[in-house]
Give the backbone structure.
Amino acid sequence: MLATMEAAAAESKRVMLLHSFGREFKPWGEYATTIRQELNRQSPWPLEISEQSVITARSSDEEPEAAFAQYLRTLFANHPPDVIVSLGAPAAAFVQHHRQQLFATTPMVLTAVEVRRVRYSDLTANDVVVAIRTDHLPIMQNILSVLPSTKQIAVVIGASPNEKFWRKEIAREVAPLEGRVEFLWWDNLSFEDILKQAANLPANSAIFWENIAVDATGVVHEGDTALARLYAAANAPIFSHDESYFGNATVGGPMTSLLGVSRATAMVTLRILGGEKAGDIKVAPVGWDAPKFDWRQLQHWGISESRLPAGSQVFFREPTAWEKYRWQIVLAGMVLLAQTALIIALLTEHRRRRTAELESHQRMTELAHLNRQTTAGELSASIAHELNQPLGAILSNTEALEIMLDSSMPGMQEVKSILADIKGADLRATEIIQRLRRLLTKAQVETKNIDLNEIVSEVIGILAAQAAARGVIINTVLTRHPLIIKGDRVQLEQVILNLVANAIDALAEARGDDRRSTVRTQLVDEDTAELSVSDTGPGIRPDVLKRIFDPFFTTKQSGMGMGLAIARTIVEAHGGRLWAENQAGGGAIFRFTLPVTRVGAERH
């Protein structure tokens, strides 16, 4: 007896799954996959599962059906299946229509088919139905419940015979809502036109996805592609009543349980394979499962969970950051607190340093101003001498003009010439005073574009009288085009004045008749200008050269020792560099570089 049971268990069973449109068509393809999984999981026998598709269901042409039925008879003539499982209404209609000609005594399970699509009067003793009961009114009411402002619901459904049947049934079932909401029917559109309509729906719209196996132009749509494209194009949320569409594009609501139908189908099929009469097995139609919603879609469309029906299940909810990374957050918080304390300490230290830097800068500015005043004091005799020239010219011309005006016939041309001389002398005196005022002014640093060559000319103008009085010749070799730099005019004048004044002092003490200082500007490269002040003096001793820029270091008896230190600070603050060296042929040369903003004209 045990051997007989083991032999029976080892004998394989043949099951044929008959699809309504094709293996890749939803929702029946999803049902087939789950049924196959449940059969293999629960079956005590090895199973040979084959799959066929009633592709003739895509149109209303009945002529190919007979040929397809003959094909199945021929295919399974020698090894008929032990049970046939039809998936969906078109497959159920096919097997019922060709029951006697196909496999008159083979048990059949009609599943994933709505109760209205089963011809119960034509069922035989070898048939069992695992039906679905569908009511579209609760589906639409669910949409209006979670989106109470909805004014239009667009219904996406295809144009195959099965879909045309459901187009009429849906319209009949939702008729009570016609005064509450407008229904848009897209069964007469190509899928491309459906996408265009979905992308331009008015506000307060929703989309109901029934199914689309074949659109109005006869184009067949398999798998998830159509729904995925609709979701990508639509500007309104999508709802459906079948669980096979749940999880990617639809919001949710009451729906048929994919797993529930599949398990019931597998259970019935295995009972038949175990020897039970199909007609003796009764299965109640499967209704709606508990409402389920996709949390991601709720978030995407701004639907509050408070509007969901009682007992709803929410899937795909993303855990909060605290739930996912609790210990990481605690650790990060501790690190953040430590970093915050460190940052506060660093900011405090930075503030102290910044305050010290500002105070240092203020002291340096005051020292620079004092240095300019000292320099101006040293130049006072030269400045007075320079001013005496235009003032003396004004006096002489004024006296000459008085004499001419006392004559009976003053020459007007000579009067005009004398007045022009007076005006020129006045302008010269004014220019000298303005240069002195700029030098002595204690003002805030003002950074702007200035011409380095122009500054050199102004400084030489200030020092010309002192140089001449001390027997020093100042030569200038400037670039042909302006050198535009960004900086403070007064500070840079002070640097050049300090360097040239030091050269004059060095030459005044030099022996011999060759007392020359040369101020030269040039472009080192396209981004850098260089100014050099050279002299023909004795040069700088090596021990002095090492310390010449140190604060309070001086070789002059009456010097402060701050001039060169301040000059280097100013140059470095302008992004440059100042250094000194002895020339091979004798004498010293001071150089500094500054960034060039632009050259006044194109170089040739």
Remarks:
- Residues 1-9 have pLDDT under 50 and may be disordered.
- The two ends are 113 Å apart (CA to CA).
- The chain has 19 helices and 20 strands.
